Amino acid sequence: MLFFKPKSIPPDYTAVAQYKDDFEDRSSSEPQDSIQLLEKENNNSSQTPPNPSKLPLVVIYFSLALALLSAVNIALLPATLSQYLAYPLTDAEIKALPYGDERIGLDRVAQITRPLQVYDKTWPDRIARVSRKLKYAVWGQGVQIYITVEDSTVMRFPIPSHGTDMCALFWKPPPESSARIKDLTTKGEITEIEVWKLIATSASGYSDIDDINYDTLSYSTLPVRGELLGVLDLTARPNSTTVEFACPREAENLVVEMRCQRVACHVDFLQVEMVPRFGFELLRRQK
């Protein structure tokens, strides 16, 4: 017959009751932790100041005040207008009233922009053709401008009496929509027409440049070329102008010779004062 012998409990055995106590202790500590977390949240929420909605009230008060002021102004408007009608302003009082500037800053444009250059213009009063190939040929005084490699045109311009000491030669072509465009004949390279100033010397037989007789002028009796005043581009639009040069002092006229600089060059037209005008002119800048 078998007998069961109860097993002896080892000395290091831990009773189950102790686990129960530990569980109770742990469960009792968890509510305390949660209570502490809740207290922290409550403290944080109590530290943030509340945001009372006062803005709508301010807007309402401001709107009411604005409406009240508008009503007062409307109520006082008839009385104010009646006073102006009963006591009208005099002309002196009206002139003394301040007026706003309606130009929107246009009065300051002159301070930031360069002033426009104004020139006086003169038309040539003497025109004569000469030929280097036919040195003794005489065409006489006329209105024909004839410029080629071998031919040049001499022109005398009266100098405007008033202005600065700066002058320039000016070329104005005929308008493209005008019938006078057919009066101008050009061939080849006409972008560089030289303008030479003629001077009187003892070698040329002239004591004064105004002594030239244009009815007998030929290439053999042509005065000496003195200074190259500039170059004109006859293809430029709306016009072409030489660089400014010093106007002749103590002289009434400027005598120049127009000649081609390029080999293939031909210009032919009649410079007459017919509307619309085109041709060569002398400019003098005004003061």
From TrEMBL:
Key word Transmembrane present: yes
Transmembrane stretches, start-end: 58-77
Keywords attached to this entry: Membrane, Transmembrane, Transmembrane helix
Protein name: Ubiquitin 3 binding protein But2 C-terminal domain-containing protein
